[in-house]
Design brief:
It is a single chain. The chain has 305 residues and is α/β, with parallel strands linked by helices. It folds into two domains: 136 residues, ATPase, nucleotide binding domain (Nucleotidyltransferase, domain 5, 2-Layer Sandwich); 152 residues, ATPase, nucleotide binding domain (Nucleotidyltransferase, domain 5, 2-Layer Sandwich). It has eleven helices and 13 strands. The strands form three sheets. It has a five-stranded mixed sheet. β5 and β6 form a beta hairpin. The structure holds zinc ion (ZN). Zinc ion (ZN) binds next to loops.
């Protein structure tokens, strides 16, 4: 049986097809299409037509707000408002389709085959062009009543501060998303971390200031949810120890509001750009009542790039 996982973003769409033993049998990435969901669905179906066996079900990890009750999707970066994209994809692929928010999909993948297997209290914070969040509470995803919760990027960390795309002011993501860092640094994220590893003092100061902003938001999240593990994903989150060591220090020394007792474990996401589509494969298997039993996690991880 084959399951398709499709990670739909504003720039690219990444698809992975997996069998019930977690073996990746097909992968591709195509450009996304803004504003015309039917055309995008046709492009995706066309891109999967090279895979000759029938697909049992498909799971979508979709940027934006995915309401799994009404099956409607709102996604600013795709110019979608109340789009019934799961139904559109069912027609295009001729198989059952379910969808979740892309960050929730990434957490699902990490909890099945990645850094938080077996963890029951996890906050996943995606640090990219915006900031997204997803939570596991007592082993189950927490989504809010209409599945559009966990919007940690719009938690206000600076009352009356910078204007945000949501219409508010002072939102966390204005201070801790990747462009907040690159604007301060004047170079891309990768270059920031390269220079910090090389010991460039000005860049170390810039990263330390950024981590201070990041930890204002993380402290709020840790206080409210008390996760045992915090997974940092997205372009910045995947930087590894150069970031994590600073986050641990800041959280331990400069966040007195956090209750006594052990800090959560801070880790980088492990699945990289594969997370959304792999999460989609697990979601697709769920539709069919199948539990994917991954036989070779190493082989799966080697499919990242
Ligand atoms: Zn906002």
């Amino acid at each position: 049986m084959f399951f398709a996982g499709i990670d739909i973003g504003g720039t690219t769409v990444k698809s992975t097809i997996m069998n019930e033993y977690g073996r990746i049998v097909y992968q591709n990435t195509i450009g996304s299409v803004k504003g015309d969901p039917c055309l995008l669905a046709d492009h995706i179906a066309g891109s999967l037509s090279g895979f000759r066996s029938p697909i049992a079900a498909a799971g979508l990890s979709c940027a934006g707000q995915v309401n799994r009750e009404t099956r409607l999707v709102n996604a600013g970066n795709l110019k979608w408002r109340d789009v019934p994209f799961m139904d559109i994809m069912e027609q295009a692929l001729r198989c059952p389709v379910d969808a979740d928010n892309d960050v929730a999909g990434a957490l699902y993948a990490e909890s099945q085959v990645g850094v938080c297997v077996g963890e029951r209290y996890v906050a996943y914070i995606s640090l990219g062009t915006g900031i997204g969040g997803a939570f596991l509470i007592d082993g189950r995803p927490y989504r809010g009543w209409d599945n559009t919760g966990a919007e940690v990027g719009h938690m206000i960390t600076h009352a009356g501060g910078l204007p945000c795309s949501c219409g508010g002011r002072g939102c966390f993501e204005q201070y801790a998303c990747s462009s907040a860092l690159t604007k301060r640094a004047g170079v891309p994220v990768r270059e920031v971390f390269r220079q910090v590893r090389a010991g460039v003092p000005e860049m170390i100061d810039i990263l330390d200031d950024y981590v201070h902003e990041l930890c204002i938001g993380l402290a709020g999240i840790v206080n409210v949810f008390r996760p045992r593990m915090v997974v940092l994903g997205g372009g910045i989150g995947s930087a590894g120890e150069v970031l994590l060591s600073r986050v641990r220090y800041e959280m331990t020394h400069n966040c007195p509001s956090i209750p006594e007792g052990p800090m959560p474990v801070f880790v980088s996401a492990s699945l990289g750009n594969l997370a959304g589509s792999v999460g989609g494969c697990f979601l697709a298997a769920e539709i069919m009542g199948v539990q994917i039993q991954v036989e070779d996690i190493g082989a799966l991880l080697r499919a990242r790039n």
